[in-house]
Recover the amino acids of this structure.
C-alpha cells in the first residue's frame, strides 16, 4: 500500500501506537457528497433558512440571480477534476463531486438526500438543477486557503514531507486538538436584488465542532435514513449506541435488518 498509493510513503502514520489516537480526529458525514462540498452546502442551507425566515416561503430556483462561492483550492480542484466525467444525464456521483450541482439539487428539491439523488428525482428536476448550477461561480480564495487546517497543528511540517532528510513522527501528537477546517463563503444575489452572504469554516460532524452537535446530527441522520427501511429505527439506534450492553446478537441483527 505505502509503495503504491501515495507518491511519497508516509510510514510515520503508523508510529506512536498507543500514544497518538487518530480516532480523536474522526469526521462524520451529514451531507451526501465529497467532503469538499460540505462547507459551501452548509453555508447555502443557512442562507436558505434566512430567506425563508424573511419571506415566509422557501427559496426556489427562480429567486436565484447568481451565487458566488469563495472556497479553498481543494473545493475548486474537486469541481474542475470532476467536470470532464459528467455526461448529459445527471447521476448522483456527478452531484456528489460538484458544488454547483449540489446547489442545484438543494435549491430545486429543498434538500440533498437519498431521495433527491435518486435517478428518478434527478431526471425530474434536471432542468432546474442545471439552471441553478449555471448561475454558480466558484473562486479559489487566498483567505479561505489560509484558514484551512493541516498537519502542522499536530506537529507535522507538510512542506518538508518531500525532504528525504525529514523524519516526521506522531509522537506527542494530540489529535483531540485537531480542527478540520476547509472554509467557504457563499454569497447569493436574488432576482429581487437582495444579497445574502454566509461563511462556514468547518462542517457539522467534523473534528473541532461541538461533540453534542455531532451526536445530535448523527442521530438525526440515522433515523432519517432508517425510516421506512428498518422495522423500528428508534429501537435500532438505541441498540447500536448501547451495543456493549447487548446480550443477544440475534436481536441486534433483527433490528438492523431491512424489512
Amino acid at each position: 500500500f505505502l509503495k503504491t498509493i501515495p507518491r511519497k510513503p508516509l510510514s510515520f502514520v503508523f508510529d506512536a501506537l498507543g500514544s497518538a489516537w487518530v480516532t480523536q480526529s474522526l469526521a462524520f458525514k451529514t451531507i451526501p457528497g465529497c467532503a469538499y462540498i460540505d462547507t459551501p452546502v452548509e453555508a447555502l442551507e443557512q442562507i436558505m433558512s434566512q430567506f425563508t425566515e424573511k419571506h415566509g416561503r422557501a427559496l426556489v430556483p427562480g429567486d436565484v440571480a447568481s451565487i458566488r462561492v469563495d472556497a479553498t483550492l481543494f473545493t475548486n480542484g474537486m469541481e474542475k477534476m470532476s467536470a470532464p466525467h459528467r455526461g448529459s444525464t445527471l447521476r448522483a456521483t456527478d452531484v456528489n463531486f460538484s458544488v454547483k450541482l449540489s446547489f442545484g439539487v438543494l435549491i430545486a428539491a429543498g434538500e440533498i438526500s437519498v431521495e433527491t439523488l435518486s435517478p428518478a428525482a434527478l431526471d425530474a428536476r434536471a432542468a432546474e438543477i442545471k439552471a441553478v448550477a449555471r448561475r454558480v461561480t466558484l473562486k479559489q480564495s487566498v483567505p479561505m486557503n489560509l484558514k484551512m487546517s493541516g498537519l502542522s497543528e499536530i506537529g507535522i511540517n507538510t512542506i518538508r514531507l518531500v525532504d528525504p532528510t525529514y523524519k516526521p513522527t506522531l509522537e506527542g501528537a494530540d489529535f483531540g486538538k485537531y480542527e478540520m477546517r476547509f472554509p467557504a463563503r457563499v454569497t447569493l444575489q436574488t432576482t429581487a436584488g437582495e444579497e445574502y452572504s454566509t461563511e462556514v469554516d468547518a462542517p457539522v460532524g467534523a473534528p473541532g465542532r461541538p461533540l453534542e452537535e455531532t451526536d445530535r446530527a448523527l442521530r438525526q441522520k440515522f433515523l432519517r435514513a432508517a425510516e421506512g427501511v428498518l422495522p423500528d429505527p428508534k429501537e435500532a439506534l438505541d441498540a447500536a449506541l448501547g451495543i456493549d450492553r447487548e446480550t443477544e446478537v440475534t436481536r441486534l441483527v433483527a433490528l438492523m435488518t431491512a424489512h
